[in-house]
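Fold this sequence, please.
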Amino acid sequence: MTEITWEELAKVIAPRVLHEFYNPLVYPHIKLEDKIEGIGTAYFDFKTNETHVSKEFLDQLVEHGEMDPETALAGIYKHEVGHYVHYPRECAELMFLGHLAESSFGEYAKDVLAYWVDLKDNLPQILKEKTGKDVRELYKGFNLLIEKEEDFTEKQKEVLRQHSKDPEQVMEDLKRYSIDRLLISYYQEQTKEDLGVHVDDEYFQEKLSQLMTLDFGDESANLQNFILFGNYIMDVLEKRKNILPKSMQNGGGGSGSGQGEGTVMGRPINIGDFTDEQIEDGLDSIIRGKNKGRYERVKEYVERQTGKNFDRTPPKSKGKGIGLGSSDLKNNDDQIGYYERLAATYGMFIHKKPIVVDSTDSFPEGSERFRVGDAIKTLDPFSTGGRILPSITRRKKLKQSHKRDRLYKVPNANVIIDSSGSMEDPRNGSNAVLAGFILGRNYHNNGAKVGAVNFSVDTAFLMPTRELNDFYSMMCAFWNGGTALNIPKIKEYMERVAHSDVRDMPRYFTTEQEYEHFLGSLSPEKQKEFVDKDLELNLRGRIKETYEKVDNFLITDGGIANIDEVVGYLNSLADVTRNTIFLIDNSSDYKIWTEATLPNTQIIPVDKPTDLRGLAVGAARRIVPDDDKIESTFYG
């Protein structure tokens, strides 16, 4: 350029383009470089939200693409910023489609994904009559670059002749099987504006007709359109690849360099273009919308692409792992990363409640001489009439004491989870385990301790702790046996919690002998109930203050034989604790529980993960119906 430099023009173009995009949160300047090695054209940096443009490519568009400088720069800038505004916007979409492309399109996966991303970015822009003009002109100029593509070098021609190929015919075939020209022709058909593509070839027209059958604006058919789009152009990529000898192939896509194919997209956007934090957010988005198997396949794809591990797992506990004695409890600690990430996408509000805690208090115990540096608040104003006199003014001598007080705090959580054979294995995606993780994570984040009871025919206990990974390990563990809650051991567990002296035994297990003794103490009818996976829950005789300090949660698929006894017990605790029951994959029992009118007890049916969203524990509500109150919406 002679009249105005690219740098000067960029200062004018950038604010105008960003205004058309309603000023997105991107770097407000265009970063111009003489030449972008390995890319050649331009790219949008998702890590910094900056757009980089090659001045060499701009010069080519002006000289060979017959574009005016302002339109060339504006068109490229709109295309690149469009990746931030229109598509893909963030990396979750790239992750999901990338892993699908890898299994569906093999060696052409990256090319298919790159062309798809460009098309989805361009289409909503070029269809706008006024603001889309710059992008339409960009592709019109780009088509001219392809048409004017220089011939092969003498060295390349010699290589082609050695493989019995006519250089002129090869160049013609490369232009014939150009994905860029095919897409420009598609834009031309959509806008009804001449972009310079005039190809009467039957094969080319067939591919164009296939693309015209797809509605790329239909987001509900996005996945289906992506697969069809890939299948349509993969055939073109295959033909293009077979034109050149292996020594001259560049991976099926276009990169120019005398091969009849150049592309505005430059280097395709890939997962490595995003920060680790952006990738973590993308995985969070995937895990909320997809099942466990699909999420794990996407995560494996991301880790292969980046060479990094993206498990969100708390630091390992210094305590002993689960699996003591002859216990059959199966560890599933490798599943912690999945449930931890998924639980992090679920919020929960926990209402504080008044509980008895140990607190410190200060009281004056005599006085002593006030010295320079002593806290002013300790000064005794009556010792010298409000004045500070050296060696005369006195200060209060304070002493710390401990007292028991009732303060509003988030209680500890005690999560009792059923891992019998009727429950879903954590490896298959368990709503019960997810519920436990959500509870543990949110109580832990509120400064509370979390304890756990994992039961089947045997029982494992975890005392309330701040070691979140220990809690997660207990939630993922799986007995896969019958269902029985050993009541004597539950009582012992709560007594240990009440005495708070549990550091010597944070985890412990029931033994087969203990269970047999427990089972033998039951009547034959009750024994049959347990063998048939019925759950008896008997929590009488607990220490009141202990229950005030904990919120109790029972996660089970139900089938409780002694429901009247359970209801009676929960009713008896209504004044001191809060109880929540998660009924997993058993909505039919929800009516039974609600008809019991349990005070201070929340019953949550969980048939799908979305049932665990928007939960609140201890919500302000009327505990016991009061028939004397006037009917009003204010009473709830």
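The chain has a mean pLDDT of 80. Residues 222-243 form the longest helix (22 residues).
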